[in-house]
Amino acid sequence: MEKVSTYCFTVEPFYVDFTGRLFLSVLGNHLLNAAGNHSHDRGWGIDQLNEVHYTWVLSRMCIELYDMPRQYEHVEIETWVESVMKLFTERNFLIRNADNGHVYGYARSVWAMIDTSTRRPANLLTLHDGDILRYVLSAEEKPCPIERFKAVSPLTPDQQPDTIPLDPKYSDIDINGHVNSVKYIEHILDIFPVQTFETHQISRFDIAYKTEAFVTDPLQLLCKNADGEYHLEFRKNVGSGKRPDGELVAQARIIWKEQ
Amino acid sequence: MEKVSTYCFTVEPFYVDFTGRLFLSVLGNHLLNAAGNHSHDRGWGIDQLNEVHYTWVLSRMCIELYDMPRQYEHVEIETWVESVMKLFTERNFLIRNADNGHVYGYARSVWAMIDTSTRRPANLLTLHDGDILRYVLSAEEKPCPIERFKAVSPLTPDQQPDTIPLDPKYSDIDINGHVNSVKYIEHILDIFPVQTFETHQISRFDIAYKTEAFVTDPLQLLCKNADGEYHLEFRKNVGSGKRPDGELVAQARIIWKEQ
Lengths: 259, 259
Prior knowledge:
The structure is a homodimer of 259-residue chains. Chain A is an alpha+beta fold. Chain A folds into 2 domains: 5-135, Thiol Ester Dehydrase, Chain A (Roll); 157-258, Thiol Ester Dehydrase, Chain A (Roll), CATH 3.10.129. Chain A is built from 4 helices and 10 strands. Chain A has helices at 24-41, 46-50, 181-190, 194-199; strands spanning 5-10, 54-65, 74-84, 89-97, 103-115, 162-166, 200-209, 219-226, 229-236, 247-258. Chain A has a 10-stranded antiparallel sheet. Chain A starts with a strand and ends with a strand. The A-B interface holds A 12-20, 23, 25, 29, 32-33, 36, 46-47, 71-72, 169-171, 173-177, 180, 182, 186, 189-190, 192, 194, 197, 215 and B 12-20, 23, 25, 29, 32-33, 36, 46-47, 71-72, 169-171, 173-177, 180, 182, 186, 189-190, 192, 194, 197, 215.
């Protein structure tokens, strides 16, 4: 089995924004589907892992884009595993025009595996006798020329972030009962005025998933413009108990560029 | 060219709800994509029509489902044109499991064509010398065993419908700058408690698009349970000018069944 797989899709009209460019959230869906298919084809799919009480958990994702695929374009996503550590594995993506080879951008993701009965992390190096190591393509063999996720400090009240209440709804919830990882991206972009998308495009988007949110968790979305970078956080249980600032659910960062 | 075309898709994990069933809004996207591809393959695609200043406008859609495709299932959508009148054409859909032929349900849609320079409807019978008539498959030749859209009266204040404010956001807006036809479906289902989807499934969903809404139009979503059927309306310009009840943007009806 090859270490890299390629998955294709067409940018259908109902998946582009008002500027004719693919929604970032839909691109995120395609990246996660490519990850799922690549894992499945090598015996490490969520459906196969569920049978042995394990599942993949997305921990971090960063996407860096030179430009965004447009309506009717044919896009291919290459994906491969860059590294495997005890508790995490890094999976990378290349996003390319399938007809002319133009590279739209790259993405990186970090995944953990958890035991669904104990909710504890599994040791990736020993699971299935370390079979996953057979699929690693090092950064020297297959470079991914974008920086890894850069951790940022949580927002503090003295930064006076904008705060938007957000109650998860039916369409936000995935098959595990959690707020869908891609819906966080959609909610984040929805707080920007649409004019932003006329004059700017997303150059870099980072997101870290800290803990799960359920449909019963009212969320707050915090946003702060810090020197041209937007820092965003989803929090739950705000104002309750010992942690009045709430519990960090996800943390994101957007860098826009003028177009 | 055959009169019927078939388009396939796989129910990917990120497009199913918490019960493991395809989101109705995503099914709606696939129906519209099938319509777009079927038209395009016969020279009547939106991209081809735009060059001659025409475009398709979706007027009505009804979907009737025996059950809903589930995660990882392969689905095929057959679509064909049932009739062409001067100002409208009817397009039908059959939704089927691609592996075992199980029929999930059917859908009907009604489309108008407008001249994008004058915003007036075009005469489908004379456009391109009536070429579209070559693709008609009558109800006798290819039955679609669900009822046509049933018009319902607009809700009145004395019915005391629930009213939910809804400000269109970036992710709601399509390439024409309007609220995306499928996003209305998503917003409608989001007003139901998630428990509804545990005990019930959608048996029938009808929607009629009356006028466009833009990102600058604050909307109201009205909902009334009328003898087990839910009647829903999107209105804009509520409380303004001569029409304090606002202008009807879209009208929908849902029938649930216990599962």
